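Pasting as-is:
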Amino acid sequence: MTPHDYDFLRNCLKQRSGLVLTADKQYLVESRLLPVARKAGLANLSALVDALRFAEDGPLMNSVVEAMATNESFFFRDKIPFEHFRSIVMPALLAARYASRTIRIWCAAAATGQEPYSLTMCLKQMEHLIGGWHIEILATDLCDDVLEKARRGIYSQFEVQRGLPIQLLIKHFTQVGEAWQIAPELRTMVKFRQLNLLSNFSNLGAFDLIFCRNVLIYFDHPTKVDVLERLARVTAQDGYLVLGAAETVVGLTDTFKVVGEKHGLYAPNVRPSPPLLRVAKPAPRLVAVGAGR
């Protein structure tokens, strides 16, 4: 692949997925995209680039973007966000939403589904507290193929061994051949949908909690700022945002603030309303009784 071809691919990927590739990542692009070229019946990566130039917005470009996406995920990844969910976020939301008994959660980079399914298992442990509540979990991702795997909820032995306690495996999964499938009642708790974070997502409505972990690290500074500020607009004023261990809002935006000293947990930084301007009323004119003009 020529440097010119590589620059073309870098620009395409940044525009469509936010992924920023440095000049030294050409080997990664070649290793991931060569199978895409072969599947499309193209001789090599140069032919792939030529085809993309001819039809930049077709199915082939979608395949390229999906091939370059990093879909690393595992159950209860990093543990701390789920501890915050159980001990801080849910108690606060249960108190604040007592009247409506409705909570909306968005997993904005759900990959193969381990994150939203980890949340469903946390919620099952709270059944005595959330009976009669409507708790909606929306899980989105850029890639259709990983979302299809998430909808099926079938994971290999290796995947269930990564972060999933054995007691939860036994309780919530059924063995299917050499794999494991999560229980139907947990699958129905999550709605999966394809979505690009670079696109407008205001039509999704407001959320009480947003998990957007391990995706901002692939964006450049302006894209991070843009995504965070748009996330703030769909986060309830008393809601929460959870970022990945290597991510932060510090130095990017003041629309969120750290919750206490809990790393990775943020709340909207609600700005106080400006004070009302008080216009001084003119002093009343005093007129002496019986006085002439």
